[in-house]
Amino acid sequence: MSDIDKNAGPIVPDSALGRSLGAYTAPDLSGGFADRIIAATEGRAAPLPASRPAGSRWRSARRLAVGALAAGALGTAAAATGVLERIGVDLPSPAEVWSTITRSEPEAVPASRQGSGLPSGALDTRIEIEGPVDTPEELEEVFRRVDEIREERRDIRRERVDRLIDDAIERRREQGLPAPTPEREEQMRERLDQFRERRDTTREQRLEQRREEYRERIENGEELVPQDIIRERREERFQRPVGRRLERLREMSPEERRDAIRRFRERREEMSQQLNPAPEERDQEPEVLQAPQTDAFEMQPEMPPE
Amino acid sequence: MTIGSTPKADATNEDAALVARIAAREEAAFREVIGMHAALLHRIAYRMTGDAHEAEDIAQEAMLRLWDHAPRLGQRGEAMKLGPWLKRVAMNLAFDRLRSRGRTSDADVPERVDEAPLADEALAAEEDMLAARALMEGLPERQRAAIVLTYYEELPNAEAAEVLEMKLKAFESLLFRARAALRSAFEANEAQGGAA
Q: Which keywords, in A-to-Z order, does the entry hold (chain A) (predicted)?
């Protein structure tokens, strides 16, 4: 035992220090102590009321308000520092939100928001489909293009997540904080890959199920408009007149929808005849009719993949 | 195998029942608690303040606080441990008195002047007591509390830490320093030739 430990060890009553401390005896309580206390209780105020339950409404409201403010502040800070963009959360600008509410034309998106540190054109990729899809070949071509874009976007997302993980580990190492060992990192990445695989499998199954439905509709002679196959961006859907028409179409009963599609085909047929008259008619009337196009024909959808 | 509660659990149940009875303003229960704990509180307060009258005031105030707060303390149910709670209140009251005394007086150790003729033995005992008191009062108040609780009242470290509202490790460190300071002061006194 060191001198310090010995000096700070327990005090033995038989030691010189113990005998000295033993001399510090406490006197007894004076007689009638209990009676004096009991007498003192006579003049005491009434017992304190039981404390209020923890879930007092005012206290709860205060906590809610503090929580909401804190959440708002955190959200604002995250948006301001660009964290949400880095993790792939697309925040609409105030102008976009306003245009969605008022259904007015949104202002052009500033160039600074388009980059996000991604490969050029990564998020601007769109699938272009002209006109309705009414043959199995056209449908399979649409699927092929969609798959192409999906692959590309999936790779970009994976690359972004991997880069974020690498950056985080690197930062921890630089700051001298505990970082996963190479083995542990390998395990984590394996688990991440397994998770991705499971998620992709589930998505593929759902997608294939939906595609089968499209194939059946084509086989049944139905025409598909691009919006049936490719989900349009919400803000774009509200901005385009045809989007609003399609929205209305979706809200119709099956009978009404079939009737609307039939009328649309008749109009298209009629316009087609006007644009490409029969040979005898062409001889009689050589001028090419400039028939007005409908919104559906004007539409060149540029939408993100499913 | 028999199923029963441990003595500690019984004590806790008993404490809870006593507090409930005091909350119901049952004088007998209050007297019982005074009989069980008042002397201990008085000893603690005396060794902390070195003044018998002040110690009685502290013990009385601690008991009256129990009377006042019994309805609220009763809500703790079996978690209510009367002994540690009373010791904590008494210790905090003692700290308050010491701080108040420090603000109003510069006197370190109240000198007791007794003009009555004393036998040699009584005189020696008185000197020993004053020396011990001076040793204790030379310690910072929390170190003094650690010695009072563990050496004089023989409380386990865990309970003493609970009274002082400290983590066990922090309390052990405090006790370590208190013992070292006490030994140093004692050895210094001895080197100077005895009583302070």
A: Coiled coil
Instruction: Summarize chain B as % helix, strand, coil (round to 5).
Output: 80, 0, 20
Binned at pLDDT 50, 70 and 90, residue B7 comes out as: very low
Residues A176 and A250 in one domain: no
Residue A28 is given by DSSP the state: P
* Chain A residue numbers touching B186 (CB-CB < 8 A): 16-17, 20
| Distance (Å) from the alpha carbon of B4 to chain A's nearest alpha carbon | 32
> Which one, of A31, A41, A49, lies nearest residue B64 by Cα?
A41
Give the Cα separation of A20 and A17 in Å (integer): 5
CATH of span B8-103:
1.10.1740.10
Domain end, chosen from A208, A231, A254, is at: A231
Query: Is B46 an 8 Å CB contact of chain A?
Result: yes
Same-domain check for residues A225 and A144: yes
Mean pLDDT of chain B: 82
Q: Which CATH number fits domain B121-196: 3.10.20.90, 1.10.10.10, 3.30.110.40, 3.30.465.10?
A: 1.10.10.10
Task: Give the range of the structural domain holding residue A159, as residue numbers without chain letter.
Answer: 132-231
| DSSP one-letter code for A235 | H
> For B182, which of A17, A28, A36 is closest by C-beta distance?
A17
Comparing CA positions, the residue from A211, A90, A196, A198 lying closest to residue A146 is A211
pLDDT of residue A131: 73
> Which of the two residues, B38 and B110, has the higher pLDDT score?
B38
Q: Does A17 touch chain B (CB under 8 A)?
A: yes
